[in-house]
Write a structure and sequence with these properties.
Blueprint: E1 6-8, H1 14-25, E2 30-34, H2 39-48, E3 56-61, H3 77-83, H4 88-95, H5 101-111, H6 115-127, H7 129-140, E4 146-151, E5 164-167, H8 174-177, H9 179-187, H10 189-193, E6 200-203
Parallel strand pairs: 1-2, 2-3, 3-4, 4-5, 5-6
Length: 204
């Protein structure tokens, strides 16, 4: 597969899925950035719509179910209350990066009603042993090119066979700490996902 010419976020929703479908119908090479649990919904919907997925690569950025289980505090409502009040400058400090438009946007999103609670709830759900096992098994059944991007400080511990790209010096949110690296990796997602099973690539 050649390098990606179209990158789509938010594919869990109808508009995102529809955009992916329209791009594929028009012969574009698409990288769809997904969250845990939305990859199979996207594939099923595209099949139902009769869309050829030959030019599609699915990219999961820091899937929560592959590293070691999050701490009890990280999965608690207490941390949700902290997150929804966290100023952008403090969020940047916690992540160890300068404040930026990406950080400002993330902080503003967490301040929206219910977002912090849903974020923590999703992390807690992905961290349960039952869901970790089920989601990892789902990956083994995936039959379209699939790429995983993770941070070196949030290492993957589950056994997987798909290509993995590790970004050095970052944790669970590389899209905030290294947005330019993520953009570059998404552009080359199609070529990288075609690599041999279990290939691990480290980038700075």
């Amino acid at each position: 597969m050649v390098d990606t010419d179209s990158i789509v976020f938010g594919v869990a929703g109808f508009i995102g899925r529809s955009l992916v479908a329209e791009l594929l119908r028009n012969g574009r090479t698409v990288a769809a950035a997904v969250r845990s649990g939305s990859r199979e919904r996207l594939r099923t919907w595209l099949i139902d719509e009769g869309v050829d997925q030959g030019q599609l690569t699915i990219v999961d950025i820091s899937p929560a179910f592959l590293p070691s289980r999050a701490s009890r505090l990280t999965r608690s409502r207490i941390i949700a209350e902290v997150m929804k009040r966290l100023p952008a400058a403090k969020l940047a400090e916690q992540l160890g990066v300068p404040n930026s438009p990406a950080i400002e946007s993330a902080a503003a999103n967490l301040h929206r009603p219910g977002v912090a609670c849903r974020t923590v709830a999703a992390l807690a759900a992905a961290s349960t042993p039952r869901n970790r096992t089920a989601l990892t098994a789902e990956l083994s059944q995936l039959r379209v090119p699939f790429d995983i991007i993770a941070g070196s400080d949030d290492p993957i511990t589950a056994p997987i066979t798909h290509p993995v790209t590790i970004i050095d010096g970052t944790g669970h949110y590389p899209q905030l700490t290294h947005p330019d690296v993520i953009a570059s990796l998404l552009r080359s997602a199609g070529s990288r996902a075609a690599a041999s099973e279990g290939a691990v690539t480290a980038v700075g």
